[in-house]
Amino acid sequence: MPHPVLIAIDASPASHALLDLARRYCRPGEHTLHVLLAIDSTFAVHDHRTAYTEEELEEYPAACDEQQLAEHAVNSAVGILCEAGFESLGCMVAGQPVEAIITKARELECELIIIGHRHLSRVGRLLDPSISAKVIDRAHVPVLVGVPTDVG
C-alpha cells in the first residue's frame, strides 16, 4: 500500500519547487501524494468545488477570484504529479494554514509533510510568523522544508 505524503502549497510559482522536491524524494507506486492548499476562510465562498452564482460573483469578487486561483493551483499541481507517474489527490480547505496542514496530515496518516519556506527577515517573522516553523513545532511526522529556488 502506498505511503501518503502531504504537500502543502500556496498559489505562488514557488510551489513548483515543492513538487520538484516531492518528485526527488518520493517514488511512484510507493507514495501517494496529497496536495493541500489552505486559504483564509474570509476568501472562501464555498467549502467544496461548485459553480458560483451571479450574486456571489457580484458580491464577493475578490473571494471568488482567490478561491478559483487556489483551485487552479491544486489542480495544476495534481496534474503535474500524475504526469510524473504518482497517484495524487488534491484539496483546497478554508482555514488557518497551520491547523489545516496538521489536521489533514493526521487524517491521511501521512508519513511526511513537504512545505515551503519564505526566508523572512526578523521583522518579517514578527509581523507574519512562519507557517513552516509552526508546522514543524506541531507535526507528528517529519517535515521536509523546501526553499525558494531564487534564494542563494
Automatic annotation (TrEMBL):
Transmembrane segments: none annotated. It comes from the Bacteria. Residues 3-145 form the UspA domain. InterPro entries: Rossmann-like_a/b/a_fold, Universal_stress_UspA, UspA. Belongs to the universal stress protein A family. PANTHER family: STRESS RESPONSE PROTEIN NHAX, UNIVERSAL STRESS PROTEIN HP_0031. This is Universal stress protein. It comes from Pseudomonas mosselii.
